[in-house]
Amino acid sequence: MVTDDAGQGGTAAGRDNKTGHQGGAGHSMVQLITPAGERVSHPEYDPWLKDVSDEQLCSLYEDLVVIRRIDKEATALQRQGELGLWPPLLGQEASQVGSVRALRDDDFIFPSYRENGVAYCRGVDLADILRVWRGAASGGWDPYTVNMAIPQIVIGAQTLHATGYAMGIQNDGADSAAIVYFGDGATSEGDVNEAMVFAASFQVPLVFFCQNNHWAISEPVRVQSHTQLVDRGTGFGIPSMRVDGNDVLAVMAATRVALDRARRGGGPTFIEAVTYRMGPHTTADDPTRYRDANELEDWAAKDPIGRVHALLDRKGLFTEEFETGVRTKADAVARELRAGCIGMPDPEPLDVFKHVYSTPNSWLDRQQDHYSRYLATFGDPEVATQEEGAR
């Protein structure tokens, strides 16, 4: 099914048979689950979901619920002073779950700072997801243990990293791929556009995954772009798709199409997942200052969890036992997240010099020596002990 942003049925006239693109007037938005939970058939995308069983659909629902629970728990931890900051993903769960569950273990992920749901599905330790937001580390986890880079705070910079990594995959002759996540606001950054130039020029195996959540902090997307964001990819000669980002199956199908193209040597793909940021940009933001409450209400009716709930109910799969099991799992994850946060040890003063370079560096060693002697003037025995240990 192709729709407009309001979730109403649209026309498929003019769509390219290979890509599902809308000719001339723009790209239609692919939707496979309506907000009411109706599964809509789509001849181009259905084949990419033929292996998704009822059991897997239930598992996707669990992912969505658990991720939202993580988000609420982390927000509460920030409000209670346990985290310095938290970037909520409320409302964007389907975009993250649908895309990450389409990946193979050897595919590499380059996130922004909001892909906490992707990190959970990828197997990142719960405490590690919070580490940077508690101020206990500069990163959070070893990227190569899960093939996912640490959160990128600089808007759009990760697209350049992803393009370079994808060029490496290409040079190695591997059939893996890379995916890079960014928001609608990042499409206005030079880094993103430069990354698309290189990715298109060298036809690298990369998926540009744009979560259009309609707000770049307080700036609405309509101010940033007077055309669909998916057209940005098309402008660089990159095959592009526009999907309902609140529809976990549509997102999964589109991501699988893009990954298949990448593995076959077809180059990059741009996916615009049309979703909505239900909460603030970060916990330091107050969206009521710039956002109409009616807009929030309209998008709440298209909630990504609600529509999968409705679909499972239609199929007779949403039993009391299943609901209890999902709720129990979500609560257990939240408890583990909270315990990991509160029990996280504070970093030592000289830990700031760790993991800067992979090999010894005399320039950094000199800085560490100067800083340790400076700290020693305060008479802190812990600093002296740490310095002695480093030697």
Q: Please, what is the average pLDDT?
A: 91
- Figure out the total of helices: 15
Kindly state the number of beta strands. 9
Order of helices and strands: EEHHEHHHHEHEEEHHEHEHHHHH
Tell me the strand order in the biggest sheet.
3-4-5-9-8
The percentage of residues in β strands lies in 5-15%
Rounded Rg: 22 Å
Shape summary: globular
By CATH, the topology of the largest domain is Rossmann fold
Give the CA-CA distance, first to last residue.
Answer: 64 Å
Helix percentage: 40-55%
Organism: Arthrobacter globiformis (strain ATCC 8010 / DSM 20124 / JCM 1332 / NBRC 12137 / NCIMB 8907 / NRRL B-2979 / 168)
Keywords: Oxidoreductase, Thiamine pyrophosphate
Protein name: Branched-chain alpha-keto acid dehydrogenase E1 alpha subunit
Cofactor: thiamine diphosphate
How would you portray this structure in words?
This protein has 391 residues and is α/β, with parallel strands linked by helices. The chain folds into two domains: 2-342, Rossmann fold (3-Layer(aba) Sandwich); 352-390, no CATH class. 45% of the residues lie in helices and 9% in strands. A five-stranded parallel β-sheet has the order 3-4-5-9-8, sandwiched between helices. A hairpin with a 2-residue loop joins strand 6 and strand 7. Helix 6 runs parallel beside helix 7 (190-202). The relative contact order is 0.15.
